[in-house]
């Protein structure tokens, strides 16, 4: 996969708000941008969905400080897969 792709925030935001959104409603549209861009960059650079899901779980629990909820890992895997699908449309 090319290392320099033009990743657009809007598709990542759609994925983040639809499939992840660990904090819930009432947040600015750009609340998860840094995390989603990091996840997309990891995918571009060859990281697996499992590794990206680990990152997203870490963000949710360690960075944001939420208590791990049931299904947190599965939700993170869905997000990683959706981001991978989006990134693949760019190449």
Description:
- With 91 residues, the protein is mainly α.
- The protein has one domain (9-19, 29-88).
- 62% of the residues lie in helices and 0% in strands.
- The protein contains four helices and no strands.
- It has helices at residues 9-20, 33-44, 49-63, 72-88.
- Helix 1 (9-20) packs across helix 2 (33-44), helix 2 (33-44) runs antiparallel to helix 3 (49-63) and helix 3 crosses helix 4 (72-88).
- The model has no long low-confidence stretch (mean pLDDT 93).
Please outline the helices and strands:
Blueprint lengths: L8 H12 L12 H12 L4 H15 L8 H17 L3
Query: How many strands, what sense, and barrel or not for the largest sheet?
Result: none
In terms of DSSP E residues, the strand content is: under 5%
Total beta strand runs: 0
What Rg, in angstroms, do the CA atoms define?
12 Å
Question: Would you identify the regions where 5 or more consecutive residues have pLDDT less than 50?
Answer: none
Q: Given the C-alpha coordinates, what overall shape results?
A: globular
**What share of the residues lie within helices?**
55-70%
User: Secondary-structure element sequence?
Assistant: HHHH
By secondary-structure content and strand pairing, the structural class works out as mainly alpha
Mean pLDDT: 93
Termini separation comes to 7 Å
Q: Count helical runs.
A: 4
Condensed summary:
The chain is an all-alpha fold. The protein has helices at 9-20, 33-44, 49-63, 72-88.
């Amino acid at each position: 996969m090319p290392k320099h792709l033009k990743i657009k925030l809007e598709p990542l935001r759609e994925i983040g708000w639809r499939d992840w959104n660990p904090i819930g409603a009432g947040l600015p549209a750009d609340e998860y941008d840094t995390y989603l861009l990091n996840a997309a960059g990891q995918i571009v650079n060859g990281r697996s969905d499992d590794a990206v899901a680990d990152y997203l779980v870490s963000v949710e629990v360690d960075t944001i400080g939420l208590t791990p909820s049931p299904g947190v890992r599965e939700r993170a895997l869905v997000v990683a897969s959706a981001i991978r699908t989006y990134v693949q449309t760019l190449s």
